[in-house]
Amino acid sequence: MIRRISSGGVFEDKAGYCRAVIAGGFVHVAGTVGEGDTAYDQCRDALGKIERALSEAGADFADVVRVTYMLPDRTEFESCWPLLRETFGPNPPVATMIECGLIDPKYRIEIELTALARE
Source organism's superkingdom (predicted)? Predict the structure, then answer.
């Protein structure tokens, strides 16, 4: 069984995707950007959106097994580390950071992750 979760974001409709999909025992969360002026602010906002999607799927950050961070400037990533350490606490997932262009130059970080589904 596959269940789709939409957050109603503008890119979901424009690009034809949803925020998260529950399938195969996992919650797959699409690349998520946030609002704000800095990578830290955008990271915090993106994590809030991800947290809501995980909650709707019946999961939380303790269930995350894999995360990918994408940033146009890798030097901005270190400012996010304290927030990520706090978010994942004693349950850190495996992680990858990729330096790349994002869909709009105003975005400083995009986060994609996979969590175990409890359903």
Answer: Bacteria
Query: For residue range 5-22, what is the model confidence (pLDDT) as tens digits?
Result: 988 877 788 888 889 999
Mind listing the pLDDT tens digit for each residue in 36-89?
999 999 999 999 999 999 999 999 999 999 999 999 999 999 999 999 999 999
Contact 47, 86 (CB under 8 A): no
| CATH number belonging to domain 3-116 | 3.30.1330.40
Residue spans of the domains in the chain: they are 3-116
The whole-model pTM stands at 0.94
